């Protein structure tokens, strides 16, 4: 026991209790995240059912390939993160760090691709506001699509940025040897967060990019 | 465990450390509770100040002391201060913070740093709101309805929206902390059905905070976006949908009413059983009822939107579901009454407030049924009937419960007793003042006086003057406890560990408690509230115990 | 407990297949069914991530309840909001 005493906060009885509390706390936090994004998804459902044609024509401005690559990138990062947690559970510091580095690179790749996408949208005057230009039949409703596009992907990207910062901290802690096969809650809980952010994208990609793909004028 | 080596005198949580740092960087849930107590009291009196201005203006039918614009700002800021900055954090962040760990036999909440962080978030949110209050105010109503708040108002709602957004996360963090603490840190033997009802209430409240708050947070983000960019989301003129805002807003803000009232119900359950010297009647029903209210509360938000343009069929569903909330609420009122029946009631201050709660909450709840009915709501919406109804719930219910709790646990929190005579007197004054303030408003509303106007036809004046007179008595009723409670701090800590002879674990610790609450983790072997029958070691009347103590 | 690596690779493979399926189906014109299929596949993918990557399958019932609660309340938000929009006259 004495080995873990420094890791055991005074309010807990033992390491098991502390770990269970940390995991449960993370899940409770993720519930709030589900509902935070949930408000945006509600708005999306309401407006898409109200203006299906405008959403289809606005969605045609999005880049299916870039979005698709990003979906793959995030999927890969989820796998590497799961493997990092696996390595941490085994107490293998080296491969924990290696898999976290993969995760970090994939996360940054996602953000860079996303950045290029945003840049294109700005260049095409598709950011909502005074400069918004749409060539569709219902410009107002198409703008609404882009409000939701930027809001949903923006909040998602903000979560990615926070995730990358957290990942750097966790990597630093791993490198310093803070985690062992018995104590690695922060790694596991960060993994939960990362997978959650991936899940959001799993929904965002088909809902935003893949509306009426067959109707696109290629 | 006491050993010979330990000094006889031991530091309690209040004098375990001195200096500003020992408070502002504390991780002790009890000190954080005190910090919260100071913060929310500050906002309570700010909100109270606005209420005084409102009632003064409404003494006469014409505008006297403020303009229409100022009046709009006054009722808006009254609502924001009272709802977001006082009522929602009141019992959870003060009494819950202090007593949830103590009542389950834990040394602290699961995440003490998060707890302190949530207090800082509260204050940052508060600063944003104060900034607006002193630099011109906001006139959108506490509900921030779009498109008025996004496109039309001349005041600037953005700082307040940011403030409430930040505050929301403070509330969420408290909720997460309580959920995990109650799940994972109960003392050995403390099974779910041995938990005090205040813990059940805190649990149910946390569920609402965690599940509801994020939705209003994102609604406020969208509102701020629309306000700042002029791009339509909610404004129909800009191709937006105003009713969508109301859905997202009330998905949280209706359950938020239960964030305010459920903890009070928990407090009242503790107080009623203690001072009636009887087991609580129907313990399991009480626990299920509180969880039932928390869950049903999420299914009824549309009753705020009957005249908004919402579908009439959805209105029917929301109306029917709203009636369901009456069932668990009634179970609670009946069970408190049944607990009091044939009890050996000790008429001490906490139970006087609890009586106030039971009576006023019942009136508030029953008038809620008028508003849950589609047809009567069309007549009563946006009249003073609504104002009276929710003040009966929030002031008559939530605040009375809060004061019951403060008076019940004050000796534990501070180690001091307050002046019983003054305390009883102010409980009485509050009850009288409250009813005189708000009962006339039911009649005014029924007669058709709309809310949120600073002028009104002369035939409403008599009832309005009554209401203002009542408000002045009510105000006095809030000032007196401030004085005698603060005054009690000058006295020595002689309250004793268990002045009311209560059964909860929090009363097994010294008053004020030690920094880590318990020297040894207590073990629980029985249900809560064993007050009668003599089998319990403390099963003696309150007064006997007190006499023995002095 | 430690989940074998093999399972992670299998789940990732399944996710990849479902991802390709999502794109393939999107290029077939099915009218309104496109979105239903896309969302169904997304739900399956999310479930796989929750169950295996997030270890809910191997956790206590309490974690199950917490994980489900968020999605259950999301459905409440969707259903009751749409109950309004779908029945406007």
Short description:
The complex is a heterotrimer of chains A (218), B (550) and C (89). Chain A is 75% helix and 0% strand.
What does this protein structure show overall?
The complex is a heterotrimer of chains A (218), B (550) and C (89). Chain A has 218 residues and is mainly alpha-helical. Chain A has one domain (16-215): Four Helix Bundle (Hemerythrin (Met), subunit A), CATH 1.20.120.80. Helices cover 75% and strands 0% of the residues of chain A. Chain A has 6 helices and no strands. In chain A, helix 3 (64-89) packs antiparallel against helix 6 and helix 4 (93-123) runs antiparallel to helix 5. Chain A is elongated, with a radius of gyration of 21 Å. Chain B has a single domain (29-545), classed as Cytochrome C Oxidase, Chain A, CATH 1.20.210. Helix content of chain B is 66%, strand content 0%. The longest helix of chain B has 36 residues, at 68-103. Chain B is globular, with a radius of gyration of 23 Å. Chain B starts with 19 loop residues before the first helix and ends with a helix. The model of chain B is unreliable at 534-541 and 543-550 (pLDDT under 50). By secondary structure, chain C is mainly alpha-helical. In chain C, 78% of the residues lie in helices and 0% in strands. Chain C has helices at residues 5-26, 33-53, 61-86.
């Amino acid at each position: 026991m004495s080995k873990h005493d420094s890791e055991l906060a005074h309010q807990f009885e033992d390491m098991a209790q502390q770990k269970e509390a940390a995991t449960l706390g993370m899940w409770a936090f993720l519930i709030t995240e589900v509902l935070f994004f949930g408000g945006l998804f509600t708005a999306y459902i309401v407006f898409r059912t109200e203006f299906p044609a405008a959403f289809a024509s606005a969605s045609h401005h999005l880049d299916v390939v870039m979005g698709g690559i990003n979906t793959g990138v995030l999927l890969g990062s989820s796998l590497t993160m799961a493997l990092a947690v696996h390595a941490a559970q085994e107490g293998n510091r080296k491969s924990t760090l290696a898999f976290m580095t993969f995760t970090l690179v994939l996360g940054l790749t996602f953000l860079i691709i996303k950045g290029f996408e945003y840049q294109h949208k700005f260049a095409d005057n598709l950011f909502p506001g005074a400069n918004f230009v749409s060539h569709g039949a219902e410009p107002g409703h198409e703008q609404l699509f882009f409000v939701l596009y930027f809001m949903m992907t923006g909040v998602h990207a903000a979560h990615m940025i926070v995730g990358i910062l957290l990942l750097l901290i966790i990597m630093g802690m791993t490198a310093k040897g803070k985690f062992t096969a018995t104590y690695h809650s922060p790694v596991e809980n960060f993994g939960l967060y990362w997978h959650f952010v991936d899940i959001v994208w799993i929904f965002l990609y088909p809902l935003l990019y893949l509306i009426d793909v067959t109707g696109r004028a290629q | 465990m006491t050993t010979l080596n330990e000094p006889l005198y031991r530091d309690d949580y209040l004098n375990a450390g001195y200096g500003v740092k020992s408070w502002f960087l504390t991780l002790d849930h009890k000190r954080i509770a005190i910090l919260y107590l100071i913060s929310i009291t500050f906002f309570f009196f700010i909100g109270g100040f606005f209420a005084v201005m409102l009632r003064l203006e409404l003494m006469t039918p014409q505008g006297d002391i403020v303009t229409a614009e100022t009046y709009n700002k006054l009722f808006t800021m009254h609502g924001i201060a009272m709802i977001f900055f006082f009522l929602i954090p009141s019992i959870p962040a003060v009494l819950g913070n202090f007593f949830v760990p103590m009542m389950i036999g834990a040394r602290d909440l699961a995440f003490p740093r998060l707890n302190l962080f949530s207090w800082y978030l509260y204050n940052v949110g508060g600063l944003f709101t104060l900034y607006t209050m002193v630099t011109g105010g906001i006139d959108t109503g506490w509900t921030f309805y779009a498109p008025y708040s996004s496109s039309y108002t001349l005041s600037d709602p953005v700082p307040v929206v940011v403030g409430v957004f930040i505050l929301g996360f403070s509330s969420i963090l408290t909720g997460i902390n309580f959920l995990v603490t109650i799940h994972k840190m109960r003392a050995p033997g403390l099974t779910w059905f041995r938990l005090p009802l205040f813990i059940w209430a805190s649990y149910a409240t946390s569920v609402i905070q965690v599940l509801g708050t994020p939705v209003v947070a994102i609604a406020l983000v969208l509102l701020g976006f629309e306000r700042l960019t002029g791009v339509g989301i909610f404004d129909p003129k800009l191709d937006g949908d105003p009713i969508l805002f109301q859905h997202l807003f009330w998905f949280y803000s209706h359950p938020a009413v239960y964030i305010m009232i459920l903890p009070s119900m928990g407090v009242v359950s503790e107080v009623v059983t203690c001072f009636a010297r009887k087991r609580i009647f129907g313990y399991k029903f009480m626990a299920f009822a509180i969880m039932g209210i928390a869950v049903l509360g999420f299914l009824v938000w549309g009753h705020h939107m009957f005249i908004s343009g919402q579908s009439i069929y959805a209105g029917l569903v929301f109306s029917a579901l709203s009636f369901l909330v009456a069932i668990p609420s009634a179970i609670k009122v009946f069970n408190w009454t049944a607990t009091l029946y044939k009890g050996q009631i000790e008429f001490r201050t906490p139970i006087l407030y609890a009586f106030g709660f039971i009576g006023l909450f019942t009136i508030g709840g029953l008038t809620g049924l008028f508003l849950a009915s589609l047809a009567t709501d069309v007549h009563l919406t946006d009249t003073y009937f609504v104002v009276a109804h929710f003040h009966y719930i929030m002031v008559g219910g939530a605040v009375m419960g809060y004061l019951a709790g403060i008076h019940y646990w004050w000796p534990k929190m501070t180690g001091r007793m307050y002046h019983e005579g003054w305390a009883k007197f102010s409980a009485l004054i509050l009850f009288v003042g409250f009813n005189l303030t708000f009962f006339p408003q039911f009649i005014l509303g029924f007669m058709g006086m709309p809310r949120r106007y600073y002028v009104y036809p002369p035939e409403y004046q008599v009832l309005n003057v009554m209401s203002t007179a009542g408000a002045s008595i009510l105000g006095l009723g809030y000032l007196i406890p401030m004085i005698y409670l603060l005054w009690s701090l000058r006295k020595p800590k002689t309250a004793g560990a268990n002045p009311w002879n209560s059964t909860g674990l929090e009363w097994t610790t010294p008053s004020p408690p030690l920094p880590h609450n318990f020297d040894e983790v207590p073990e629980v072997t029985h249900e809560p509230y064993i007050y009668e029958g003599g089998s319990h070691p403390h099963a003696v009347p309150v007064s006997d115990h007190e006499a023995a103590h002095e | 407990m430690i989940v074998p690596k093999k399972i992670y690779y299998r789940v990732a493979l399944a996710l990849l297949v479902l991802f390709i399926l999502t794109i393939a189906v999107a290029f077939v014109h099915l009218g309104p069914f496109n979105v239903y299929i896309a969302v169904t596949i997304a739900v399956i993918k999310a479930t796989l991530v929750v169950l295996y990557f997030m270890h809910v399958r191997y956790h206590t019932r309490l974690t199950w309840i917490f994980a489900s609660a968020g999605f259950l309340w999301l459905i409440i938000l969707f259903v009751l909001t749409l109950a309004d929009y779908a029945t406007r006259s």
